[in-house]
Structures
1.
Amino acid sequence: MKRKLVSIPLSVLLVSSALLAACADGGKTATPAATTSGETPKATDNKPTAITIMTPLNTPENPPDVVIKELEKLTNTKLTFQFFPADTYEEKLNTTFATGGLPQVTYLKNQATFIQMKSAIRDGQFWEIGPYLKEFPNLSKLKSTTLENTKVDGKLYTLYRGVDIARQGMIYRKDWADKLGLKPPANTEELYAMMKAFTENDPDGNGKKDTIGLTDRNDLIYGSFKTVATWLGVPNNWGVKDGKIQPEFTFPEYITAMDYYKKLRDEGIINKDFAATSKTDQQNLFKKGTAGIYIGAMTDVETLEKDLKKNVPTAVVDVHSMVAGKDGKFSSWALPGYANVIMFPKSAVKNEAELKKILAFFDKMMTPEVANTMFWGIKDVHYTVVDNKAKKKDKELVEREVKPFTDAAVGDEDTTGRYIGVSDSVPFTKAQTLKIDNLKYAVQDPAAPLESKTYLEKGVQLQELIKDATNKYIYGNIDKAGFEKAVEDWKNRGGNKIIEEYNAAKK
């Protein structure tokens, strides 16, 4: 089959042969690579099923094989996990795809990466799995609304890892706020005032001007910008204006959000090089006591608090989410119900029998026993059960040995029956409540279930144009007229067609 490439920047493809070799080998694998004869085992064969899995890594190092061995025992498999750092995962994914080297099970990083792959899905390069789910009792429990959000032309090609729909908020230094006499911000003006005070009023008391209000990274979606922009009234990717679906950056609130961030950067309240800062470095600014606020998934607080206290034992952390915009209204950016999706390339999964064996593995992953192993680790080693809830025994051990698999878990708490967590971290427990409270104010993407042929062909490149223009505006390299010119460029290169197609699909 002639391989149809997804739309990706040219720079992604211009990689060295050494990198390609590393991708083909899966980087550092957590277990020795499995080999197969190329023949599909018979249904009666009890030989372990060999499965290779490519997935993002959100920890500094690859995990040992403790969890893998337990999973293999529970599911009668021989597993090879290919972990790649999340910060550069899209590059590894696209390079491996371009060379025909995707493994049998391929995790995509997020909604944007999934959209990027839709042209390859339409080209027949991945297995359609919808017709098979009814054969697997546990996979059949996956949420229909989330599955609908991942269908392509009405067909299902993916399994998903569930995610809290409205988990966004702020994690902040409560000890700094208390020292400066500040309450949790009720609106974006008070949020600005807190960030400015954290920058200028020596909150750590060392007599030096060495703190900043907000730490951010090179991601306008999963960094802080999207969350704050939603608080300021910006729609979720697309909004309705004059009875038509329009892109978020054509709304005046988007300019307001850029002005808000430009002011933060101009005044040194945010790390000035945020557009070139990785997630790891962003979090380190908070963990080391340099930044007072981290805006993103509130459930990140457990790890951020733990690591911060290693450097600043007296630090006190809290979470907060109800930040109103200038109109006094609350809004919470909503995710589509999944963090990433799992796909099965036809180049690696050769026939229906092999696909069914892999789906059988994922069906077992959704049983409570295996789901708890993926998400919490091994009972009495990584966690204990308290009041029918899981409690981590050693957070560092869990971070090192379990978290990479937690990020690859399938389904949700309620669809798998896995334990809900309990933590000694007070702000983490509070975050669990706030993410439910946020649901009342969740702002959905009205274009999520719609299709646009032009978006699939050009959307990735066009979105890079807007991302670049947004960063340039915040950095002061272009003004409002320059940004509006970029929007017109977006429209002329295919954006108008995307708007037209989405509105036609809505009707």
2.
Amino acid sequence: MEKKITLGIIIGNRDFFPDSLVEKARVEVIELCNTLGINPIVLDSNTTKLGGVETFQEAQKCANLFKQHAEDIIGVWVVLPNFGDEKGVADSLKLANLNVPVLIQAYPDDLDKLDVARRRDAWCGKISVCNNLYQYGIKYTLTTKHVVRPNDEGFITDLKAFLSVCKVVRGLKNVRIGAIGARPGAFNTVRYSEKILQRNGISVVTCDLSEILGNANKLTKDDAIVKDRLDKILAYTPIGKTPNEAMIQIAKLDAVLNNFMLEHSLDATAIQCWTSLQKNYGCNVCTSMSIMSENMLPSACEVDVTGTLSMYAMQLASGSPSALVDWNNNYADDDEKCVLFHCGNWAKSFLPDIQISNAPILGTSVGVENTYGALDGRTPAMPLTYGRISTDDPKGIIKAYIGEGELTDDALKTFGNRAVAQIKDLQGLMQYVCRNGFEHHVVMNASKTAGILKESLSNYMGWEVYEHR
């Protein structure tokens, strides 16, 4: 069973507004959390007045409660049933020092309840709370509507998006990526700064490819671990015309990679592929990478570390697998369509007709018989979020671009993993990619999560983000 998401809840209050507003809001918020499977950490109504926060003493109590659950709280929801006390909210967050995303939600007034006994003034109070958080240097997220009730469908959509933002931010600040092997010599494009990533909480664990291949060569087809991995591969995909000897090679390599990830507690990998694997081991690693990505442990080829970081971010935003692709070809003379391609490592979710094959282009230089393990399959029509995270070493920053489009069912006769993408102002996007020195690799995800990624990467991670609209 998936662990419940835990949110800290701060209910702002000002005591010259009606107590019933705070009392009712607390009940509504807890009920909504229970409905959505959220574990709310909120002051008891006996600990402070109605469980709200107004004074510095109440802020201290709220902060202490949050500190007790700091390991679990991934975000804070600030509720303003009335104007609220902006210092109480800001002090609670400052003292708790959780460094997590914060959502500001304020209740609307009713036109027939603007008398002294029933008015809220939360429209105004929200501005004051945001002003104080800005002064304190605390980042926060706004709702689509300035004021909105918790049971409003629009707010529920906002809240679910906020939960995804929280997952992205927490995940990126603690991610561990395995860089297996050296980048291909011809691929300056996948250079990156390990130091800039580490400054942002992203750890890279390196390993020489010879260690992986050496351990794989020590295994035999009779080893239990090889049989186990082979069974998992056969259950995952049809093997087409792949020879049995090649399947054993693929399974041995898969076993070693699986152990390496477990040993180092890795969340993702970037693996050297061509041409060392084919020349020195005799197969492609694509099948293993596909299985990992499908199991939410994204894997990118050509040691594209920031590519797999992009895959991981999109996975956290959507809850579904990502794939690393090439911006590869124009689609006839359609200026808003292009071909996405790779020789074969996309997650199974993108490939309903998946099967193990070889890599014909790579085979021209290393021998097709040494390229089994690449996958063949066509991605059908799906929603599309695309994007790329990269370190810009001369500027000393992390930057990204993101956007949304569609994957289509347009005719496409070729091999490997392939898809057709339709993106508005695609030509303008390509101008941006080229002018800003981004890689030819991009990441795709079958979702509409660009807004979540923009909020996560720009507002909370502090990265330079371009959203293509």
